[in-house]
Design brief:
Number of strands: 10
Order of helices and strands: HHHHHHHHHHHHHHEEEEEEHHEEEE
Distance between the termini: 67 Å
Strand content: 15-25%
Oligomer: single chain
Shape: elongated
Length: 436
């Protein structure tokens, strides 16, 4: 009788765990958000975000997504307030990590995440999301010509990059040491059926890392130049050119920096952001694992990147009836893939250790209580799946064009591939950033 009672109790516990906040269906929630968002229905997108986040204590993704929707709707002040909440969470967690020196101990829930599933780990945001947050905040400020405020946001971006670089070096070294200790030699290239080519694509491997953006550094150069700080503008342009070599726009920015202006026209940077950040999906891959002196083929889940294809690519816009070429300076899809590529050793390590631990535990339980062993097997099936949380309303592609325009009204036309929208813009500053 006792065995009969154990099974429903264990299954009930599994069901309760699988229904907790850490196991929300973010894919479905973000689909519900991005559908009205892409259609331009900002209020509906905001309503969906609020409905899906009823708890008083919000998570980082809530602030990421809401801030992006508000910004797209032109509510820059509200967007900044929302994103400042995200910024504060990142700073607090960053300080904790630096203090403890151990990411696994720093993040709440990581212990259970390491034992049960990565979905139970606290979502701290990917490195490129943290850097792009302050970049997007700078664009909000530049939309209202607040160059001094944008300068502050840009300074935070550079400081964050330095912190991330230091933390990642420590984390990757720790992951290598743990893998060697556990005897795990599997690499993502060994995963049969895994889309290895997507992580080894030239645009992914060509990135210096997952978090430094040529656009962020070019924007910093433009802001410093507008403020008359050419000594700081040059490193920004130089870093952008280093991150995206053989790009005439970036090379020309350095050449023109010391040239005196020969006209009273305004120096305009038009920033065109299109598409949405890619989704993360889960794929199961069979992996041979040593469990209780036997090799057991076990299907394990790993994350993959699914690019957003809802926006047709384009490389030109119209300005006052003339076609001008855009220069691509950022791809969130490429950064996301690079982040996953760099994180895969740690993901494989945690996933493999969890699976072996569960397998050994289930075998021992089966020997004494088959029904309890069955419940453990059911729990493993319910809880199996890669972590698919990610900031989806972050723009995917960022392209720019730099022009000299006379003060007054101008008309910008988007190509027919993306609706052929016409936007009237007013140029009234010596330097100005116009974001579409």
């Amino acid at each position: 009788m006792r065995h009969r009672l154990h099974l429903p109790l264990l299954i009930a516990a599994v069901v309760q765990l699988s229904g907790c906040g850490a196991y929300r269906n973010y894919d479905l929630e973000l689909q519900q958000t991005t559908d009205p968002f892409k259609a331009g229905n900002i209020n509906s997108a905001l309503a969906v975000i609020e409905a899906n986040n009823p708890a008083v204590e919000k998570d980082l993704l809530y602030y990421f997504e809401k801030g992006a929707v508000l910004s797209a709707g032109g509510e820059f002040a509200q967007s900044q307030t929302t994103w400042r909440s995200a910024e504060q969470m990142i700073i607090e967690r960053q300080d904790t990590i630096q203090t403890t020196g151990d990411k696994l101990l720093a993040a709440m829930g990581d212990h259970w995440g390491s034992i049960i599933n990565d979905k139970l780990r606290r979502y701290d945001g990917y490195d490129y999301e943290k850097v792009m947050l302050t970049t997007q905040m700078a664009l909000n400020l530049l939309a209202v010509n607040d160059f001094d405020g944008a300068r502050t946001a840009i300074k935070k971006t550079h400081e964050r990059e330095a912190v991330i670089a230091e933390l990642r070096d420590k984390e990757y070294l720790k992951s290598e040491e743990e893998a060697e200790k556990e005897g795990i030699k599997t690499q993502y290239k060994d995963l049969q059926g895994y889309p290895v080519a997507s992580l080894d694509a030239p645009e992914v491997v060509g990135l210096k890392n997952s978090y430094q953006s040529a656009f962020s550094h070019y924007l910093s150069g433009f802001v410093y130049e507008a403020l008359g700080e050419k000594g700081l503008a040059a490193p920004g342009y130089r870093k952008a050119a280093e991150l995206r070599p053989n790009t005439p726009l970036l090379e020309q920015a350095l050449v023109n920096l010391d040239k005196p202006s020969k006209s009273d026209d305004s120096d305009i940077l038009i920033v065109v952001q299109s598409g949405l950040a890619p989704a993360r999906d889960s794929i199961r891959v069979p992996l041979p694992l040593p469990i209780s002196n036997n090799v057991v083929i076990t299907p394990l889940s790993f994350p993959i990147i699914k690019p957003d294809t809802s926006t047709a690519p384009f490389a030109q816009i119209g300005v006052d009836g003339q076609e001008v070429d855009l220069t691509a300076l950022n791809s969130t899809t490429a950064m996301s893939r690079r982040a996953l590529r760099d994180d895969m050793p740690g993901i494989i390590l945690r996933t493999t250790v969890r699976a072996i631990t569960k397998g050994v535990a289930q075998k021992k339980i089966n020997e004494t209580n088959p029904l309890a062993g069955l419940a453990v097997g059911i729990s493993s099936a319910v809880l199996e799946g890669a972590d698919t949380r990610t900031w989806r309303t972050l723009p995917d592609t960022t392209q720019v064009v730099r022009l000299r325009l006379k003060k007054g009204e101008h008309q910008v036309t988007l190509p027919s591939a993306v609706g052929g929208s016409q936007v009237k813009v007013t140029v009234d500053q010596r330097y100005q950033v116009i974001t579409l």
